[in-house]
Design goal:
The chain is mostly helical. The chain is extended.
């Protein structure tokens, strides 16, 4: 007779296996230049007041607190027109 927990144990064992290394991430020179520009902005310097980030996170958490997950395939009505529906 087949062990009822066999599939669960096999899935657990597969999940425990380490993933093969993906190697280093290679960025384009354009991307690296844009990252350097962003890092040089005054608001990204050490010692700059970044307390606004916590306020933004708090506001986001408050805004999604009452959201409900929709079942797959169910249409969701947006308060604004979707990008594909906008006039070009």
């Amino acid at each position: 007779m087949d062990d009822p927990n066999r599939k669960a144990r096999e899935a657990r064992d597969r999940a425990k296996k380490p993933l093969p290394p993906e190697g280093p991430t290679v960025s384009s020179s354009e991307h690296l230049r844009s990252m350097e520009r962003a890092e040089r902005l005054p608001q990204n310097r050490p010692g700059t007041d970044k307390s606004w980030t916590q306020r933004v996170l708090d506001e986001w958490a408050y805004s999604v607190a009452d959201d409900k997950r929709q079942p797959p395939g169910r249409a969701v009505s947006l308060p604004w027109p979707a990008l594909s529906q906008r006039a070009a």
